[in-house]
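Honest question from a wet-lab person: if I give you the sequences of every part of a complex, can you actually get the arrangement of the whole thing, not just the pieces? Trying it with mine:
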Amino acid sequence: MILTNVEHVPGKEIIEHFGIVTGSTVQAKHIGKDFMAALKNIVGGELKSYTDLLNDARETSIARMVAEAEEKGANAVINIRFATSAIASGASELYVYGTAVKLR
Amino acid sequence: MEQVVLVLLLLGVGYFSGRIAERRHYTFIAGREAELRHIPAHTLKYPMDRSRPVNDTGMAVGHIVVSQDYFKRFSAILRTVAGGRMAGYETLIDRGRRAAIIRMKESCPGADEFINVRIETSIIGNSGTSRNGLGAIEVLACSTALYYSELLK
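Yes, you can. This is the full assembly:
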C-alpha cells in the first residue's frame, strides 16, 4: 500500500479511483500519564507521554483507513490529510482521510 | 501566604529549569538539523528534478507535544493585559515545528527528498492561560518521501 499526501504518485499512473477513505480514533487521556504531564508542565519541554499517546492513535487511524482502501481493492491512498479535533475536554479525535486509487 | 510561597517556588523552578530545557532543546534541534540538511524538504507538489526516476515513495510523519514552563505561562497572562509580542510562545512554537520536521525526516531513513511538507499545530488542553489547560501544543509535520533509483544517483 502506497501512502502519499500529494495528488499523484511519482513514477506511477493512476488507473482507477475508488473515492474517499477515512479512518478515525477518539483518544482519551490517561489519568496517570496526565498527572506526569502536569508535573512536566511546570518545567516545560516535550510531553513524551502525550507524543506517544497521539502517535499510537494516529497509527490506528491510518491502519483503519488502509483497511478500508484494501477492502475497495485499491493499492494506494493519495492526497492524505490529517485533522485533529477536540471532541470533549480531555479527549481528541484523530482523523485521517485520503483518496483510494489503483496504480500501475 | 502558603499559596503565595508555592506560586513563587513554582515560578522559580519554572524559570530556571525552563531556560535550561529550552537551551538544551535548541542545541539538539540545531545539531540534528545540520545532520539532516542535505535531504531537501519543500512544500512543492512535484520533486525539484522531475526527470529522476522514482523508485519508491513513503508517507513521512513526525510529531511532538511540547509544553510551556510555569514561569512563561505566568508571564503570558501578564502579557495579555499589556498586549504585544509573546516571545516565550514564539520560541515554543518554533521549537515544536523544527522538532516535528526533524522527526518527519527521521521517520523515513534513506529517503532522498521530501515533497509537499505540511505542518499543522493544535492546542492540547483548553488554553494556555486556563487553570485546567495544559498549555501544550502538538505539532504534526507530514510529507511524501521519495526514494530515487540507486543506479542513477
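Two things worth pointing out. The domain at 2-28+58-103 of chain A is CATH 3.30.110.70 (Translation Initiation Factor IF3). The beta strands of chain A are 2-3, 14-28, 45-46, 76-88, 91-103.
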